[in-house]
Amino acid sequence: MTKALVTGCAGFIGSHLTQRLLNDGVTVIGIDGFVDNYDVAAKLRNLAEIGSHPAFTFHSTMLQAERWKDWLDGVDVVYHLAALPGVRNSWGKAFAEYVSHNILATQLLLEACMQRPKPPVIVVSSSSSVYGTMQGTLTDESAPLRPVSPYGVTKEAMEQVCSVYVKAYGLPITMLRYFTVYGPRQRPDMAFHRFFRQMMKGDPVVVYGDGQQSRDFTYVTDAVEANILAGRHAAPGEIFNVGGNREVKLIDVLNIMGTLMNISPKISFQPGPAGDSLRTCADIRLAEQRLGYRPQVSLEEGLRRQLADMRFQPRS
Ligand code: UGA
């Protein structure tokens, strides 16, 4: 592969993926609409960290503006990370924005790719939130989709839109269901970012619910690797869980964080917001077998790196 287009290249995962592609010698067209879900300055810092690489061209635009279509010229793989993320803010009036950024924008991208003489491979970012609260041991990709947030509903609908384009036109789309990604540049609304920031300030850590909810936390470079592998090896229509291979309770994560910071965190338990899944636990065997995906970074090491990044460059 020689040329890629990354949507959402200034975001958390998108900026890491862009850096990785550039390091691998790929020419990258990056687009980002600076969707107003968090501090634009944080996204500008992400872009600054990508740097002025000669093989990187950045365009600031929303996918809905459609002025990016010609930039698909010569692109082998599209990595589609642009979205309005976050489960807890997707209620009320915000839902229309979630529909626009997560469903409608994706469909515009697929249409544009379809018009190409040779459509690019398209790796689409989906989410564990399509499953809702998980039951039993590990959840594989055939589990029923029962989202518990409007955000999860938009990600499920986005997957369905992708699937009909695969079935009708054979468009080479693959979908990755990420499980709560963390690491340097994590979005400021996400748990680890907020917890570290609160601990650094000496404030109580605000935990929603009783802290017994669990997640299969995934380090960001592992999510990036899944994108690279999917771009190379996935077949049209395939869907993969991308997890960290370890289910951990939130309260236990706080203990690890406390050890890393050499403090005993004060915790303020507050009522859990609607839309929060109680448990996620990924069966990643399909990604292992089909793509060769294997998470490399342990939770302890990933947290250490996120903390180092936040200390080095304080952010909101
Ligand atoms: C995350 C992302 O925000 C979604 O965009 C993504 O789609 C999803 O992962 C996914 O895996 O599909 P979430 O699991 O809620 O969603 O990630 P965090 O925001 O890091 O929250 C993890 C847990 O910490 C949740 O139970 C949440 O309620 C809790 N939390 C979060 C707190 O207790 N306090 C906070 O201040 C923030």
CATH fold type of the domain at 3-181 and 219-243 and 281-295: Rossmann fold
Bound ions, cofactors and other small molecules, one mention each: uridine-5'-diphosphate-glucuronic acid
Main beta-sheet annotation: 7 strands, parallel
The residue fraction in helices comes out at 25-40%
> CATH superfamily membership of the domain at 3-181 and 219-243 and 281-295, which one?
NAD(P)-binding Rossmann-like Domain
Number of helices: 9
Principal-axes geometry comes out as: globular
- Low-confidence parts, pLDDT < 50 over ≥5 residues? none
Name of the CATH architecture of the domain at 3-181 and 219-243 and 281-295: 3-Layer(aba) Sandwich
List keywords for this structure.
Epimerase_deHydtase; 316 residues; Rossmann fold; globular; NAD-dependent epimerase/dehydratase family protein; binds uridine-5'-diphosphate-glucuronic acid; two-stranded parallel ribbon; seven-stranded parallel sheet; NAD(P)-bd_dom_sf; alpha/beta
Structure explained in plain terms:
The protein has nine helices and 13 strands. The strands form four sheets. A seven-stranded parallel sheet has the order 3-2-1-4-5-6-11, with helices on both faces. It has a two-stranded parallel sheet with strand order 7-10. It is globular. The chain has a domain of 219 residues: NAD(P)-binding Rossmann-like Domain (Rossmann fold, 3-Layer(aba) Sandwich), CATH 3.40.50.720. The chain is an alpha/beta fold. The two termini are 37 Å apart. Bound molecules: uridine-5'-diphosphate-glucuronic acid. The site of uridine-5'-diphosphate-glucuronic acid has 19 residues, from α5 and β8. Pfam families: Epimerase (PF01370). This is NAD-dependent epimerase/dehydratase family protein.
